């Protein structure tokens, strides 16, 4: 069966390479460097050696979810050219993006916009999630896909 859409190089690079790799980095730190992961998330985290067993378990579970995310993107999306499957998976990830952004609200509203204060973890938890969400929104809207809807959106933007 021929592909139901043409995947532009940018989407291919982002969804099939960059994002899965960055998600695996998050999984690595959550599981193998839990104290570092916590310290980078918020300075109020305990120092290494003081992590409760429950925290280590939860971070390992988080790492497992990151792994699932990476596998779904890198393997499931790579295995199909069905636009409906892509949109379904990416819509689920977009909803998860909003949940991920919500998860850091306890750090204060500044965490969402004060980029000069961001450390590496904030760039991952907020900045990179913004990039992923925007890329998913563009994909779901058909931008650059060569679909009729995508062409209509591009035409409307050209007129504006």
UniProtKB/TrEMBL annotation:
<keyword id="KW-1133">Transmembrane helix</keyword>
<dbReference type="InterPro" id="IPR056121">
    <property type="entry name" value="DUF7704"/>
</dbReference>
<keyword id="KW-0812">Transmembrane</keyword>
<keyword id="KW-0472">Membrane</keyword>
<dbReference type="Pfam" id="PF24803">
    <property type="entry name" value="DUF7704"/>
</dbReference>
<feature type="transmembrane region" description="Helical">
    <location>
        <begin position="51"/>
        <end position="71"/>
    </location>
</feature>
<feature type="domain" description="DUF7704">
    <location>
        <begin position="6"/>
        <end position="143"/>
    </location>
</feature>
<feature type="transmembrane region" description="Helical">
    <location>
        <begin position="83"/>
        <end position="102"/>
    </location>
</feature>
<feature type="transmembrane region" description="Helical">
    <location>
        <begin position="9"/>
        <end position="31"/>
    </location>
</feature>
<feature type="transmembrane region" description="Helical">
    <location>
        <begin position="122"/>
        <end position="147"/>
    </location>
</feature>
<protein>
    <recommendedName>
        <fullName>DUF7704 domain-containing protein</fullName>
    </recommendedName>
</protein>
């Amino acid at each position: 069966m021929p592909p139901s859409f043409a995947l532009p190089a940018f989407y291919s690079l982002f969804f099939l390479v960059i994002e899965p790799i960055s998600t695996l980095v998050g999984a690595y730190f959550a599981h193998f460097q839990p104290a570092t992961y916590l310290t980078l998330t918020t300075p109020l985290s305990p120092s290494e050696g003081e992590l409760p067993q429950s925290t280590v378990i939860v971070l390992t579970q988080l790492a497992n979810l990151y792994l699932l995310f990476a596998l779904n993107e890198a393997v499931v999306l790579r295995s199909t050219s069905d636009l409906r499957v892509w949109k379904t998976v990416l819509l689920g990830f977009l909803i998860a993006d909003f949940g991920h952004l919500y998860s850091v609200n306890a750090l204060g509203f500044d965490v969402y916009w004060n980029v000069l204060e961001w450390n590496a973890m904030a760039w991952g938890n907020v900045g990179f999630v913004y990039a992923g969400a925007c890329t998913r929104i563009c994909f779901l809207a058909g931008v650059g896909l060569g679909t009729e809807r995508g062409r209509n959106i591009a035409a409307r933007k050209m007129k504006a």
